[in-house]
Specification:
Number of helices: 8
Shape: globular
Radius of gyration: 17 Å
Distance between the termini: 44 Å
Structural class: mainly alpha
Number of strands: 0
Strand content: under 5%
Number of domains: 1
Length: 200
């Protein structure tokens, strides 16, 4: 799952520069990015990207909402460090691959001629790009970021699996709700916005 292909299609750079470049490109030119930047069998860049986004989200969440730091050991600083390490090494990779597994099952049901599991992992990982700011304790910022991420997921599924927008939207709905709505806090943020508007 973490094999680096020597010359992936799209010629993506490795390391911090490659992550930064991918982040900008997927936000600004998502259709072009998913068409050219997702390579068969090249999961590692997408995995590293997704972990980076998850760590950025966690750091932001702990910074803006210190009460979200779990009480583990040695006070808030040590507890935060342990939690971030867990996100980096276990939680983010596991969440990405479980979401990709669910997404693959749904795609099997909806799309006949589709790309492989590796490409699906990459699509989900890169679609999470806007969530680097989802840790900010402002419901509007969090909601917009996860909504944008969900839109990127649909675009990525459509382009990479060469299907229609309607099928991509249907295929990505449940994974988007679980990942962006729940894990990244989009649903509570939406509820907070509705309460502020007096709608609930």
């Amino acid at each position: 799952m973490t094999t680096w292909v020597a010359d992936p299609e799209g010629g993506r750079d490795r390391g911090p520069r490659g992550i930064a470049r991918a982040w900008v490109e997927v936000l600004v030119r998502p259709r072009q990015f998913f068409t050219n930047g997702v390579a068969p069998g090249d999961q590692a860049p997408g995995l590293v990207f997704a972990v980076t986004v998850a760590v950025a989200y966690t750091i932001g969440l702990f910074w803006f909402v210190p009460e979200r730091i779990p009480s583990l050991a040695g006070g808030p600083g040590v507890s935060a460090a342990i939690a971030i390490a867990a996100v980096t090494l276990v939680i983010a990779p596991a969440t990405l691959h479980l979401t990709a597994a669910l997404q693959t099952v749904i795609l099997i049901l909806l799309v006949d001629d589709r790309a492989g599991v590796s490409e699906t992992v990459q699509v989900i990982g890169y679609a999470a790009a806007p969530c680097v700011v989802a840790g900010v304790d402002v419901p509007a910022v969090r909601f917009v970021s996860v909504l944008y991420a969900a839109a990127l997921l649909v675009i990525g599924l459509r382009e990479v699996h060469e299907t229609t927008t309607a099928r991509a939207l249907l295929a990505g709905a449940i994974p988007a709700v679980l990942l962006f709505g729940t894990a990244f806090g989009g649903i509570p943020a939406g509820e907070a916005l509705l309460r502020a508007a007096g709608l609930i």
